[in-house]
Design brief:
Layout lengths: L29 E10 L3 H13 L5 E4 L15 E2 L14 H25 L10 E5 L2 H16 L4 E4 L1 H8 L6 E5 L3 E2 L2 H10 L5 E4 L6 E3 L4 E5 L2 E10 L16 E10 L4 H5 L7 E5 L6 E4 L5 E8 L8 H18 L8 E11 L6 E6 L2 E5 L5 H16 L5 H7 L12 H12 L9
Parallel strand pairs: 1-2, 1-11, 2-8, 4-13, 11-18
Antiparallel strand pairs: 3-7, 4-6, 5-6, 9-10, 10-11, 12-15, 12-16, 13-14, 14-15, 17-18
Helix pairs in contact: 1-8, 2-8
Length: 437
């Protein structure tokens, strides 16, 4: 398969629209030599590059980003760094060890990010006020009971909330019940990724708009780019669902395309109609339900569509159609703000695996990879990126052991069977979503 820059298409939508213009790092040219090449400048790749630089201060480390920093999945998610993952379908005692393992990884990633945001003074709206998990109808109420039992069994700090308590905090009467999980942070994802990339150690060189078109095994490995060739002793793949384009995890991961909209800035009077909290984040307990945020600056963000679109962003025409669904979900939650228009809409792609697992480890003699976060990549991707750097340098730790213990991925069929199966797999997430859309 021959790749070109067109295989890494993007647009200017998303959280980056709220940030000032910046000068991108130019692509490389000619032949370059490096100790390490990191493919992908998202959450995972930046965490890996930073840790590699700390462990190897005399090594030359190159980070190659196919798009502009912040325009990949790491800058397009809803900005949740979770500690407690939601495992749909009810608590299973035989899976308690796995639940704890995943949550340890999440918590480690949150701690690493917290330290970096504070130490590097990254202005990304970091707010560690926990996460709200809500249910709006009978189907999600069953999941509410299961999630509450899970939290109790694992002794995860949380507060159950009645409809009245939720309305008082969030300003919406839609939800029938909710759980406030005390751990977790909200953030501006594009600002976080920019801040992490702009503060990389001095022995790390970032190149943007520099997709790797072919990766050739060897010692060193050879990375072919448009107008450049990089010879690297070691390679870390941190391109998540796009690793298949380079021949890795092919048929083990696919992309689900999500979309959402932001309101304009709310007036003080409009914000006063939204309850007592200055900002909050809601995750639906229905796996296909809406993600809703009130941001610190005073916008409401709602994400309530997910579909299989061939691992691609939505076209302008598709996005305009989905915007009507965003509008419907917004007005059902906040009828008092029905007059408030949307200002921006966006789409993004998350990497999904058939059995919800993650990928971590060495794939070839000098090639390592980490990815596959199933929508929980902010905290988990940070932990995986840090751990893969340490693992590649020969270290051993509890975090590395937890990452290595990820279940094997389940194989996905080839196209066109893949397209049909993926369409129905993603669509199944919305079965019975009801009021939670």
């Amino acid at each position: 398969m021959t790749l070109s820059a067109a295989d890494f298409a993007t647009d200017a939508h998303g959280w980056a629209e709220f940030l000032p213009p910046r000068r991108p790092a130019p692509p490389p040219s000619g032949t370059l030599r490096a100790d390490w090449a990191v493919i992908g400048a998202g959450i995972t790749g930046l965490a890996a590059a930073r840790r590699l630089a700390e462990l190897n201060p005399d090594h030359r480390i190159l980070v190659l980003e196919a798009r502009l920093v912040g325009q990949g999945a790491s800058g397009r998610n809803s900005g949740y760094a979770v500690t407690a993952s939601h495992f749909a379908g009810g608590y299973r005692p035989d899976e308690a060890g796995n639940y704890r393992r995943v949550n340890r990884i999440n918590t480690a990633g949150l701690g690493i990010l917290r330290d970096q945001v504070e130490t590097l003074r990254i202005d990304c709206g970091w707010h560690e006020g926990g996460i709200y998990h809500t249910a709006a109808d009978a189907a999600s109420m069953r999941e509410y009971e299961a999630f509450a039992h899970y939290l109790n069994q694992l002794e995860i700090a949380h507060t159950p909330l009645s409809p009245e308590a939720l309305a008082s905090r969030l300003g919406t009467g839609l939800y029938r019940a909710g759980l406030h999980v005390h751990g977790g942070a909200l953030l501006q994802p594009a600002a976080l990724v920019r801040g992490l990339s702009d503060s990389l150690p001095s022995n790390v060189q970032l190149y943007e708009q520099s997709p790797v078109l072919r990766l050739e095994d060897g010692a060193p490995a050879v990375l072919h780019l448009k107008g450049a060739e990089i010879h690297a002793d070691h390679v870390v793949l941190a391109a998540n669902y796009e690793m298949g384009k380079l021949g890795f995890l092919h048929r083990y991961m696919l992309g689900s395309t999500l979309s959402g909209s932001f309101t304009r800035l709310l007036t003080p009077e409009e914000r006063a109609a939204l309850g007592s909290l200055p900002e909050w984040g809601v995750l639906s307990l229905h796996t296909g339900g809406a993600t809703v945020r009130l941001t610190a600056e005073g916008r409401i963000c709602i994400r309530n569509t997910a579909e299989y679109n061939g691992d691609a962003l939505l076209s302008p025409q598709q996005l305009a159609t989905r915007r009507a669904l965003h509008r419907d979900g917004f007005e059902r939650r906040f009828p008092q703000l029905a007059h408030v228009p949307f200002e921006y809409s966006w789409s993004g792609v998350e990497g999904l695996t058939r059995n919800g697992t993650n990928f971590f480890g060495r794939k070839r003699a000098n090639i390592y990879l980490a990815g596959g976060y199933n929508g929980s990549g902010v905290s988990r991707g940070t932990a995986f990126g840090t751990a893969i750097a340490e693992f590649a340098c020969g270290a051993d730790s509890d975090l590395i052991a937890d990452c290595l213990a990820s279940a094997p991925g389940q194989w996905l069929p080839p196209r066109p069977i893949l397209d049909i199966g993926a369409f129905f797999t993603v669509r199944k997430r919305f079965m019975g979503v009801g009021q939670d859309r």
